Structure formats: C-alpha cells, structure tokens
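INFO worker-7 received task bundle
INFO bundle size: 2
INFO processing item 0
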Amino acid sequence: MEPEFKTIAESAVSLSQIILPAQTNPAGTAHGGELLKMMDNTAGACATKHSRAIVVTAGIDNITFHAPVFMGNLTICSANLTYVSNRSMEIAVSIEAEDLLAGTRQCCMTAYFIFVALDEKTMTPKAIPPLQLINQAEKMEFEAGRQRMQERKESPNVCWLPLY
C-alpha cells in the first residue's frame, strides 16, 4: 500500500495570543520561555495535523530572537513543515508581534522544531506521511531541511553535566 502524500499547506498552523503582564519581565517584554512554549504548541499542532498521531518534540534548532515582544502585543505564531523523513518532521516556526494600537507588525523570533510521531500503543516512533511538494519554494526548503537533518545526525548527541 502506497503512503498517502500530504501537502505543506494542509498542516500549516497559526496561533495568536495577547502578551499579558504575567508573561513579561520587569522591562515589559515577553519572557523567551513563554514565546518558546507558544512556538512548541504551534509546531506540535502542525506535526499532529500532518501525522495524525501523538507527537513529541525531539529538538529545537536555530532559535533566533530578532526583536522584543512587548506586553499588550498580539503575537502571531506560524508553523509549517519544511522536511519530512520516514520518522521525523522539521517544522519552521516564527513569531510576529503586532502592536494593536499602531497597527504595525514585526518578525520577532524564528526556530526549527523537530518532532517524532509515536505509535499510540507502543509509544515508539512510527512512519510519517511523505510530503507532496507543490512549488519551487517548497522544494528548495525541503532540500535545505534535508541538509539540516543530515547535519543534526552528524553532530554529537550527548548530554553534558554542569561544571558546578
């Protein structure tokens, strides 16, 4: 039986929320951990939509803070698949902040999230539907994602102990 291909657009997700005082530091900007949590939730929804399975975060790469997110900003977190192998998915996630009073938007944060789909009974990795790439931009991003996944496999995967 041939696997059912799915498009990137089918699983793309956006989540929005207003940044509240409890999510900010004394400078009035959002805690990085709050933004990462939002990104992880958005990426998880994207991975679940694609795989239709329980998913877990396997890694996060290239976390970049481009600009601060201020209290009262509307954050728009967007996620889409960039690469899918047999058992893992790379998802590009970004956060834009909208100043609702000024009506301006700015890209504030980007990262790549790696997810694995799990078999519901054994909780072991399971096969993921392949991607149907529609246009040249998707094909280029898929190839870049394939290269990033290869680099991840080649780099040491060790847990280090604190020095103190």
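INFO item 0 finished
INFO processing item 1
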Amino acid sequence: MKSTVKIIAAALVLSMIIIGCKKKEEQPVPKTPMQAPMSTPMQTPMPPHGNTGPKVEKKIVVPEGVKAKWNKVKFIIEDKASKKSSEFTVNTGSELNIPNTNLKIAVGEFLPDFRMDESVITSASDAPNNPAVRVEVFENGKSIFKGWLYSKFPAIHPFEHEKYGLVLKEGIKG
C-alpha cells in the first residue's frame, strides 16, 4: 500500500512539474495602427474648451425693457504713452472717432446683465449686474477687434493695443 501511495504521489508531483514547466505559448500581439511620435504636430487641432461641433453664430437678443432704459455707454480710453485717460459717452448703435488717434469704435448692443448659452446672448434683467457692450474697433479703417467688453471684468477678452487701452466704464440709462 505504501508503494501505491508513493507511486500516486510521484505521479502527482511529476504532473505538476510538467504542467508548471510547460512553456506558455505566446499570444499573438494585436495589430494596431502606428501612432505618430509625440513631437509630430497634430494634423487637426482640437477646438478650445472641448467644443467639437461646428461654430454656431449666437443670436443677440436685447429685451425690450433693456432697450427702453439703456441707450448709452461710457468708455475709458487710455493713451499708454502719456498715461492719460479720457471718458467718452456714446449712443448704442453709433460710432465714435477717438480724437487724436486713428481709432474708431462701432458700438453695438448693451446688455446690463449679460448672459450667454449655446445659441443666445441676452440680458437676464435690466439691472447692471454684469454690464457688457458689443464693439468693433477699427484702426485706419481696418477692423482690429470685435467682441464684448465687460465693465466688471475688463480682463475677460480685453481690447489689446500697443498704444491705447479701451474699457467699458458703465452703461447709462437714457
């Protein structure tokens, strides 16, 4: 009986050795497209802020209550060389030729409580909670800036120029 147990034990040990030492067959490596090296620029750059859809032109809606109350804006123009500032009050929907410069400002819509979603830019109320004005600035007849100026957040999308500064001071009720 002892010899039978020894034979079974030896068979088990031998089978474990054979199974444990059996060379594993290599699995085929799945073929993947070759990736471009990191130093190669991307062929198609990603749009900012994860926006992958086509650019949608936002509709600007000025509520009637806002149109009736807010019809002027006040800008501060700074001459960076002389460090002198001037204030100008301008009607919305009009233009301002800035004296002693080659700059002209086309003043668009004023929104006292600027709000924006995927398709609409509007004013949430007629209170000056987030005042903004849409402008286009021309130098020698060429457009050099087009966007919104915010009086409480002048560093958001600011007008940048080597000689002049332009900020929205406030909206004015008319």
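INFO item 1 finished
INFO post-check item 1: Helices lie at 2-21, 64-69.
INFO post-check item 1: Residues 2-21 form the longest helix (20 residues).
INFO worker-7 idle
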